[in-house]
Known about the structure:
CATH superfamily of one domain: Cupredoxins -  blue copper proteins
CATH class of one domain: Mainly Beta
CATH topology of one domain: Immunoglobulin-like
Largest sheet: 6 strands, mixed
Bound molecules: 2-acetamido-2-deoxy-beta-D-glucopyranose, copper (II) ion
CATH architecture of one domain: Sandwich
Radius of gyration: 27 Å
Helix content: 10-25%
Amino acid sequence: MENKKETDARNNSVESASDSGPHLEHGIIKVRKHPKWFMMLQFFLCILVPTLFLAIYITEHNRSLHAAKSEITSWRLDTSTNYTMDLNYWKKQTTSEDRHYYFNISTVVEAAPDGIVRNLTVINGQYPGPLVEANAGDTLYIHVQNQMQDDPTTIHCHGLLFNQGQSFNDGAAYINQCPIPPNGGKYTYEIKLDENQWGTYWYHSHYGAQYADGVFGPLVIHSAKERALIDDYDEDIVIMVNDYYHDMANDYLPEYLGPDNENTEPTPDDGLIEGTNKFDYDSATYVVPNGDSRNVTYVNSTLPVINLDKEKKYRFRLINAGFFAPINFGIDKHVLEIIEADGTNTEKATMDSIDMSVGQRYSFFLQKPDEELSHYWMRARFDTFCFAEDNSNLNPEIDAIVTYEKNSNVDPATESWPYNGGDVQCRDLNQTLLKSLDQKVPLVSNGSTKPDVIIELDVSFLIGAYQLDRGYLNDMTYTALKNSSTMYELAFNAENNPIRVLGDSSLQTKNDGQYLLNFDKRGQIVDLVLNNYDDGAHPFHMHGHKFWVLTVGDKGYFKEEYYDPNVGKMNFDNAIARDVVGISGFGYAVLRFVVDNPGVWPFHCHIGWHIESGLMMQINELQSEYSNWSTYPQSWADLCRAIE
Ligand SMILES: *[C@@H]1O[C@H](CO)[C@@H](O)[C@H](O)[C@H]1NC(C)=O
Ligand SMILES: *[C@@H]1O[C@H](CO)[C@@H](O)[C@H](O)[C@H]1NC(C)=O
Ligand SMILES: *[C@@H]1O[C@H](CO)[C@@H](O)[C@H](O)[C@H]1NC(C)=O
Ligand SMILES: *[C@@H]1O[C@H](CO)[C@@H](O)[C@H](O)[C@H]1NC(C)=O
Ligand SMILES: *[C@@H]1O[C@H](CO)[C@@H](O)[C@H](O)[C@H]1NC(C)=O
Ligand SMILES: *[C@@H]1O[C@H](CO)[C@@H](O)[C@H](O)[C@H]1NC(C)=O
Ligand SMILES: *[C@@H]1O[C@H](CO)[C@@H](O)[C@H](O)[C@H]1NC(C)=O
Ligand SMILES: *[C@@H]1O[C@H](CO)[C@@H](O)[C@H](O)[C@H]1NC(C)=O
Ligand SMILES: *[C@@H]1O[C@H](CO)[C@@H](O)[C@H](O)[C@H]1NC(C)=O
Ligand SMILES: [Cu+2]
């Protein structure tokens, strides 16, 4: 694909298009025959006074323009510093610490991450969200204050296990907690990090479609145990990529969820790397999202620039923090040496580029090319075959500049790895290329490849009542509870609630819009067999666990005979353990996990639009244990009592 980037691409100043200075209307001063004193008075009144006022006006106006300018830039998080970690500091951390982060969530009016001005919902007034870091074994505190006027919120730390009796702090609204109310509502997430959990994660709002509007950011868990497993490196940098819309997510929902819409997801307008991009705006051809009549304002924005040092070895932590779109990511002429997927270290796998679904993460070491240029393009590409609709605003290639020269202003002239505009079948990376370094697939004690329990889940979109198209797992579409959360009901009203009473022996329950898989035996090994009867791809995510990806099929349905190790279809040894895997349209996957983490765990497609259309269920794990806990924070229970 050609690069149509202008040479002003790295203009670092963000200027407002409306900064055109005061417009002065000059009045005509008529001169008549008058006495000298009158002329002097007239001169004073007509010339000096206005000039004086004008001078004051210009000074004041410049001052307010200046203020407006800094307002325009102050919403931007400086990712060039915040997403680069201080490795020396983390290497010195040897004892368990408490790490406190403070998140004020509010709406910023008129920010422009890619140049198009829109409103965002953000953390601490900035976009994108700040990097959260801790060490394995630490306790992480995220103190949230909801400063929005109308919208509730929650924070979910994506991929963390919450496996020390803290499922209630997982953050999924109406499942693990009642949301934090607007107008000053507060909640502190206390998360005890497992000694054996490390790697690359992220956090995002798990309330409605809110994270599309800006409530998300990277989360990294450092670990000495991990450092002992992998090669040493000099620098550690988060690269966060996300698809991006020019309107608030809620403005798309009425049409998307309305009648006669057969799951036509809104196609993004753009994509960002490190929270920035430079949108190629042309007022003549630009299509305002949702047919909105508002006037579009465009201000100059910048391409991301990643400054590297030739002498150093880099670990990049790549996150697809998007809402919908999978990406194909690479850096021209460089090879990516993959060492981690979703927090699991992998045997080294080298690739020119990598496909990743929303929610997934990879760490890679960067292998430099032999030919030494100073600038290269980093590219994240959307496969337009994954979109149901065209969006003429979208340039499906999102670029950043990788430079080995400090403060340089040159556009790279490099050519990309082979790419044919996207795979006609929207698919995830071939998961058999990834092998866990130290996570063996769990087997039942008699050594059989089959698990204790197999659950078959059929994925589909169906048109039901009122011509509404909804996502289904088996025959259930999720609808959120209105006044409570699953975990509150199952723990506090264990013997008497409309969802599932303790002692009910059904493996599957489907009450009150809540489809639960109920596991009450510690140590049981469970396989979820997903068959996708929909033509679209779905990246499935499990909370509270990593699952082993025993097999993924691009086409067809899973057959029981694949459990025979001689068939060679499944990996029962070192399959990758992760928390998101993409399943192609009409494809399948088998995901294994162990019943060992008490709590309620959402299992859902990570496409934000699909969560809203109900493609979500819950794993209800060891209810007999968690309903006995005496550790529920009062502040947590109060969130539900507030809306009773
Ligand atoms: C953006 O910046 C370029 C170069 O600095 C300038 O020529 C152009 O007029 C600016 N555009 C807007 C809309 O401000
Ligand atoms: C990023 O920002 C957060 C929140 O302000 C801060 O706690 C953290 O130390 C910053 N990280 C780095 C590496 O600058
Ligand atoms: C942003 O929000 C303000 C205040 O609610 C509103 O007046 C304005 O129209 C919004 N801007 C956009 C681009 O939606
Ligand atoms: C959050 O808002 C409160 C109340 O306005 C303020 O005191 C506090 O400093 C803010 N914290 C951050 C991290 O911005
Ligand atoms: C858009 O701009 C035009 C011309 O400046 C103005 O007349 C109109 O009221 C504006 N519309 C909105 C919705 O702000
Ligand atoms: C995935 O990779 C494996 C191992 O290289 C290969 O055998 C298999 O054919 C690949 N699958 C697809 C769909 O390309
Ligand atoms: C091994 O255990 C599994 C799961 O508990 C069971 O289904 C299977 O029948 C057992 N196989 C043998 C050979 O005992
Ligand atoms: C939960 O508490 C009840 C009553 O104290 C007790 O009978 C039961 O054994 C406990 N269950 C578990 C799994 O600890
Ligand atoms: C929520 O409403 C349901 C049904 O109306 C009721 O059974 C349940 O107890 C309520 N929960 C709370 C926390 O008020
Ligand atoms: Cu989906």
